[in-house]
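Worked example

This section walks through a single chain of length 245. The input is the sequence exactly as stored; nothing has been trimmed or padded.
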Amino acid sequence: MYRGFLKTWVDGLVVHHPHTQNHAKRPNIHVAFHIYDFLLLFGPVISWWCFPFERVIGYLQKIHTSNHVGGELEGTLTRSFLRGAALRRWLRRPDCPEIIKQFKLLFDRAFSPRSEAGDSPPLSEDGERAHYTLNGVTFSRASTNLGSSLVLYYPSASASAPIAGSIEKIDTVAGDVHFAVRRQAPLPSSQFDPFLRFAPYFPAVTYSSKMQNRIDKIKPSMVLSHCARFEFSEERAVVVNLGRS
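Given that input, the structure is written out below as tokens.
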């Protein structure tokens, strides 16, 4: 079904967009047909997408090198990272001795990549921030960085399910930080959610492409994770959970 729909879309390109027949075939269209094979081989996309590798690259970029490049440093970093990865994999094996499993937390602390950043320092006086970092994760207001403003959050302490929104303001009042988050409008009941059939294996939810007028004032701890948003039609946008767990 996936390949059939994709072929229909490719065949329709020259019909709906005649200028495409004068362009060379794009390699990403060819690769898209192989996603079907990857799903059969490796399972849901979330199991093999590139976000973890992007985090590793970010971790490596933050390592201080004192401007020494092109020598033994790269090999040392690679070997150390691979040793840590192999050790964590061994600790997750079902035949790993129980006494070793008891020390897994210590191994994780010793070998897991961690951001050097903790929480943002307090402001000298009350006011608005452009960014705020909590447990090494940076959030931004939409006017500063739209991508870092997109979050899944709990609108209240009693809420049982997170919703999508965009941080519009980050305020500090009496030392306490609060996010003003504008809600993503829910998908109208008359609209079809093509991702619903894949729940809960793929963390994507379809919303309206519009934002609500309602703004929630929340604590940073009420944010579940960042999310990605893509408007795939005039009235619909898909939101994907980018949580690390």
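What to look for: The chain has a mean pLDDT of 84.
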